[in-house]
Every structure is written in structure tokens, then in C-alpha cells.
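Objective 1b: paired records.
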Amino acid sequence: MNEDEPESLAARLTCRKAHASAFNPFFVFAPSQVTIEGDVVGWSSSPGYVRYFCPRCGSRVFAENAGADETREYEVSLGRFDEAGVFVPQYESWARHREPWLEPLWVPQSEASRQGD
């Protein structure tokens, strides 16, 4: 895992629904850092954003933020990793959708995405 890649919590309503959770912790990787093996099926949940899942069991595998080649990135949810304790968030996005009973994290906050959406 590349320590320079950002880790985040997202509380966007679409993310919350897709993950059936109050937030989605994830890592961001450049396409060159990811090898995808096996079949996946994509679902465009919003313009330029595709969520991929396993066609056999339905498990979420990763998401693609499909910008131009230089901005394309893959988001891999924390739950995809076997080792605990490697995740330390570097920012929180979509904080405006955070549950009121959740305290803000100690990291930079963004009311929308980190790209300013």
C-alpha cells in the first residue's frame, strides 16, 4: 500500500446508501497501483463515478472516479483489506451529510468532495 495515497471517510448520501452505513472509509489509488483480477460489473451511481461489484456474490469491490486519465482514480473501501489498523483518515468529505451524533474527525473537513463538488 502506498502511504502517500489519501485515506478518507465519506458521508455523502449516495455512499451511505451504497454501503448501508453512516460513512464509507476508503483508500484512493491511481490506476497504475491497482491490479483487478476476475469479473466485475459496474453501476454508474453518478456522472463519472462507477461502483464495481462481484457478479457472483454481489460484494462491492471498488469504485472508479472516472475523470480524465490524469485524474482517474480507484477508491477501495477499508473493508476490502484483511489487516486492521492500517487506515488513518487524512480528510473527511461530505461532512455536511455526517450524522449529527457523530463527532467531526481531527482531520481536514470538506462539506462536499475533496475536489470541491
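Objective 1b, second protein:
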Amino acid sequence: MVKSVSGLGRNGVHDFVLIRASAIILTLYTLYLVGFVATNDITYETWQAFFSGICTKAFTMLALVAMLIHAWIGTWQVLTDYIKCAKLRGLLQFVLVSIAFIYTFVGFSVLWGV
């Protein structure tokens, strides 16, 4: 049995709840963006005004963290199932989770640069 030393949660139930909660947050964020795009004429000014609002910034930060959690747990689960070599699995997980962290931090810097 593979031990969950690199998983984000403490156990399988915790991981299950985290991945479902992050999926719900990402779905709601997608609906929020689709609703904005569907009801507005998109120009640079409207897009900038939309992302300048504190509610949109907070929701975007929440979505970025949810994406990080979702990617971390999902990566661990998929790599544990399909990559049996522990060294290769560890390397791949390190690379993929590092990319997710980079996406998150770049997202934060872009978001607060508006």
C-alpha cells in the first residue's frame, strides 16, 4: 500500500472533501465569469473594472487556491495509480505541483497588479 506522505489531506476522506469542495469553487467561479461575459460588452475597460472589484479579486484568489489544492491532490492520486517507480513518481509530482504553485503565484501577482 502506498503511504500518503505527499498528499495534501490527512487521510482519504479529507482528500475527498477537499477535492470536491475545490471542484465546487472552481465551478462557481466559472459560472461567475461566464455570467459576466454573457451579460456585458467586453472591452478592456469593462474587463479591468470587473477585476478591480474587491469581490472579484477575493473570488479569484479563492479559485486560484482551489485550483492549487485540486491539482495537488489530483496529481498525487493519478501518479500513485499509474506510476509505480517511487523516484519517478516523486519527481513528476514535484515538477507538476511546482508548476501549480507557479501558476498560483503568477495569478496572485497579475490579480493584484490590476
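The CA atoms of residues 57 and 63 lie 10 Å apart. The two ends are 47 Å apart (CA to CA).
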